[in-house]
Amino acid sequence: MSSSQPNQTGPTPPPLVRPVEIPGRGRALVASGPIKPGQVVLTDSPLLLYPSSLASLPSFCSRCFRVLPSQPLPCSSCHVALFCSVRCLSLSHPPLLCHALPSLLSVPSSSPDLLFLLSAYSLPSSSVLQLLSLHSYSNLPNELTQTLHSQLCSLIPPNLIPMNFSHETTASLVLKEKVNSFCLMNPRSGTNGDVEEMGVRAFGIYPSASLFNHDCLPNVCRFDYIDDPNRENNTEFTIRALHEIAEGSEVCISYVRVRRGYRVRQRMLMEYYGFRCECDRCKIESQWKENQGDEEVGGDENGEEEMEEMEGENVEEGEEDVEGEMEMTEEEDDMDFPHQYFFLRYVCECGGTLAPLPPSHGGVPSDLMECNVCGTVKKDEFGSTGGA
């Protein structure tokens, strides 16, 4: 996507969100003052970036994760990682991951958790402590963390073992990653109107953005411009308001694609984040006939595929797939469903979320809407950008 944001000049404005504790929801971000449609609520840089898989290495820069040029620059140490520029080559990639990559190539199915852990343990101790301070909700099976730690021990030579290296730290790091990682998606492309499946090129830990709680009708959404050649900090996240947000209101993203149906949303949120959503939208949709019953909220046969759609905290939109998307029957359409307006105004045809471009320097809201998945910019058909 190309950037549509104006250059910021003058003194740094006060933050538009502030952290609070909300009973039943834990840490959250609320508006510290009135927020206008399209206003940039938060810009966040990653504490850590790491490849989604070994298969992504030949296609994306191992430093900035842009699409590689036709003649990339190889890492002089591991000869596996590739870089898009001399600058990225000089900045390199996580040293423990660099050391382990030649060995990992002999096991192409290596767990993404290993790539994360090798990258996380390469951080300075202060950054590891910051990562460990993030929220997590449950424990992993001890056998899994023991296996991961044993694999790390075989990959990291004694002279490179970090000071904080232990089985307990490994288990804690994996827990933090599970609920705080965001996906950086592959470029979206297609021909004749067909949209190819989007995959994940990399994952990132964004400490400030991880404070956003979930709502199935979010009032902000995430934009990234990772392949923008004009952005030096191309891995920054920008969180923009969809509509007006009153002072003191909680500011929320959606952890899943908003077009997902009620049962699928609940299953994904429970499986990946450990909670059942009770937002206003879920309370209404839970009363629909098709959502009545005793279906257990739990695992999913397509967990790996659906994980690519987590906004993770995450990615709110993934591949163009209609399975599990919300469809209202005539009976439900006749019910009081005040959220229809949200889908008409803020959901793109591709399944992404539409948000107004940032207001002008004079504070006038834009009448152009941008999709955070396909990058389409179109005129707001609803005119004035008020609340949802």
From TrEMBL:
Name this protein carries in UniProt: Histone-lysine N-methyltransferase ASHR2
Biological source species: Rhynchospora pubera
Residue ranges occupied by any SET domain in the UniProt entry: 15-256
Annotated InterPro entries: ASHR2-like (IPR044238), SET_dom (IPR001214), SET_dom_sf (IPR046341)
Region described as Disordered: 290-320
Biased composition (Acidic residues): 293-320
Lineage start: Eukaryota, Viridiplantae, Streptophyta, Embryophyta, Tracheophyta
PANTHER family, per the entry: HISTONE-LYSINE N-METHYLTRANSFERASE ASHR2
Superkingdom field: Eukaryota
